UniProtKB/TrEMBL annotation:
Membrane-related topology note: Single-pass membrane protein
Protein name: Flotillin-like protein FloA
Cellular component annotations (GO), alphabetically ordered: membrane raft; plasma membrane
InterPro entries noted in UniProt: FloA
Keywords associated with the record: Cell membrane, Coiled coil, Membrane, Transmembrane, Transmembrane helix
Family: Belongs to the flotillin-like FloA family.
Transmembrane segments: 7-30
Native source species: Desulfonispora thiosulfatigenes DSM 11270
Subunit structure: Homooligomerizes.
Coiled coil (residue ranges): 232-289
Cellular location(s): Cell membrane; Membrane raft
Gene giving rise to this polypeptide: floA
Functional summary from the UniProt entry: Found in functional membrane microdomains (FMM) that may be equivalent to eukaryotic membrane rafts FMMs are highly dynamic and increase in number as cells age. Flotillins are thought to be important factors in membrane fluidity.
Claim: Transmembrane is one of the keywords in the record: yes
Taxonomy, superkingdom: Bacteria
Amino acid sequence: MVQLSTLFLLVLALIVLVVFFTIIPVGLWISAIAAQVRVGLFTLVGMRFRRVPPAKIVLPLIKAVKAGLGLDLDIGKLEAHYLAGGNVDRVVDALIAAQRAGIDLNFSRAAAIDLAGRDVKEAVMVSVTPKVIETPIVAAMAKDGIQVKATARVTVRANIERLVGGAGEETIIARVGEGIVSTIGSAASHKNVLENPDSISKTVLSKGLDAGTAFEILSIDIADVDVGKNIGAELQTDQAEADKKIAQAKAEERRAMAVAREQEMKASVEEMRAKVVEAEAEVPRAMAQALREGKLGVMDYYNLQNVLADTSMRENIAKTTKE
């Protein structure tokens, strides 16, 4: 019976120890003390209740203290940043890198950059080591109608002061592309662009394209310049083809109007012929009326018939002669 009680007490003590070390990270607390970082056990327990992993706060703090950043950091700031959705370890690494590079960056600004969705560590690295952004192929047409294609390499350095609220790489690429298009478009000939490609980079660089962005443009280098299509000739060809189609349409319209007019004239001729036939049909009636009224004698009628017969004979003779 005594042995069972002893075994029960041992099991209970083991359970209590497991729960104790689970709730209170004693090993992490000992590591912090060894690194001369003041962290209370109740503070670590409070992190557990606030659902904050103590290791994600204490280990970066230890790293910061060893790097000489302990004066600007404390448990409260790191925990608040974690609860706000930030990456504590990345912020601490960025602060260490900025200190080594001599860049003025405090925890508040680094935390704001991290919460803004930017990689603050990468921003510090780009500030130390400039980054090269290559633009896609930009096509523009010179004044002589020849298309010129160019690509540029933009060397930028992150501007820590403008990382929060500043535009990103897409804006830099868009502005550089716009500058290339305007520079090529203002060239009198594509040959001038091919002979002096550096004129593009000089003109674009002088426009101050990094205003309002999170970067500082150090240089713009034209990587490749190529001749594209003869846009001017193609436009003239298309215009000529369009003019040709317009002229054909107008000619077809005039032809249709002429055909319609011809049909109208034929109809008018037939109408006149009908009127003539109608008038000729009135002649016998008029002659009969004249005979009844005594205005025309029988001999006059016969003489008229002889004249008509003689006229018909002459017409037949004339037709035979012509044939």
